[in-house]
């Protein structure tokens, strides 16, 4: 596994894991424990690459190093296969929350695509209810160990399929029972948000928030589509917004840049970018600028005032945690505790929560960092 997996998780002697964090972009089917996959696969008769949990974790990480989102997504065939029953979904959701809480997350948005979990007889609504049960059990289990965490579901539609409006209606049915937002996921290139425009129009009329994967495996037109056709309040990854930024000149003391219309719009309106450094490296999202984290446009976007947030995307596939992602950014760009606080406040302010609850979350995070 990459040496980055062993990055230092301390800043100024403070354990980053102990700090309160917000997770906006974390896929349920990308956060399974390897041992859970093994135990759920056995009664289903599913064949695995290995029956050893450590080796299985290594297998997932290795399979995701191709530098392609399409290849990266193939590993989900295995995780979704053990998430086709009520029991499987509930267990995975419960453990997902427990692992978030252990990592210091205090607000987590859990995104997943119910339409991918129907092969063993569950209906869409039954699948959502099973996940919600697991999330609530996870919150209770975390509370019993002294960890306070709240979570919400982001109901995702697969952008290359044709169930967008149906999934939007599903999300609306559950908006007061755990669902806090809508998302589209899957292969980005060739499948713009406009393909699901009827779903996004319905959600906009019903005042239900959406985030859209854009600017990961496709460029500026995908981002434009997310904003215009998807009415996106946040961008899933969004890092290729940097294609709309031109460095005019650079000297030893300063860089002078100009922003195109899309980048200016995103910056001026504080549209959050849900970046995931390790995943972005694995999928080749910023390959045009380099092949290691130093080439990630995160720091450029941060220095220019974009609302950047830090996320894991898929903890299993990237062998990561939110603590580790923050540690990698510290190592790569030399950030200090104040920078990390900014990233958490950015995420809290962009959370799909009522304004008053976002304000409470901001205060809680500031108190937690202040007491560190």
UniProtKB/TrEMBL annotation:
<keyword id="KW-0862">Zinc</keyword>
<feature type="domain" description="Adenosine deaminase">
    <location>
        <begin position="20"/>
        <end position="366"/>
    </location>
</feature>
<comment type="similarity">
    <text>Belongs to the metallo-dependent hydrolases superfamily. Adenosine and AMP deaminases family.</text>
</comment>
<dbReference type="GO" id="GO:0046872">
    <property type="term" value="F:metal ion binding"/>
</dbReference>
<dbReference type="GO" id="GO:0006154">
    <property type="term" value="P:adenosine catabolic process"/>
</dbReference>
<protein>
    <recommendedName>
        <fullName>adenosine deaminase</fullName>
        <ecNumber>3.5.4.4</ecNumber>
    </recommendedName>
</protein>
<dbReference type="Pfam" id="PF00962">
    <property type="entry name" value="A_deaminase"/>
</dbReference>
<dbReference type="InterPro" id="IPR032466">
    <property type="entry name" value="Metal_Hydrolase"/>
</dbReference>
<keyword id="KW-0378">Hydrolase</keyword>
<dbReference type="GO" id="GO:0043103">
    <property type="term" value="P:hypoxanthine salvage"/>
</dbReference>
<keyword id="KW-0479">Metal-binding</keyword>
<keyword id="KW-0546">Nucleotide metabolism</keyword>
<dbReference type="GO" id="GO:0005829">
    <property type="term" value="C:cytosol"/>
</dbReference>
<dbReference type="InterPro" id="IPR001365">
    <property type="entry name" value="A_deaminase_dom"/>
</dbReference>
<dbReference type="GO" id="GO:0009117">
    <property type="term" value="P:nucleotide metabolic process"/>
</dbReference>
<dbReference type="InterPro" id="IPR006330">
    <property type="entry name" value="Ado/ade_deaminase"/>
</dbReference>
<dbReference type="GO" id="GO:0046103">
    <property type="term" value="P:inosine biosynthetic process"/>
</dbReference>
<dbReference type="GO" id="GO:0004000">
    <property type="term" value="F:adenosine deaminase activity"/>
</dbReference>
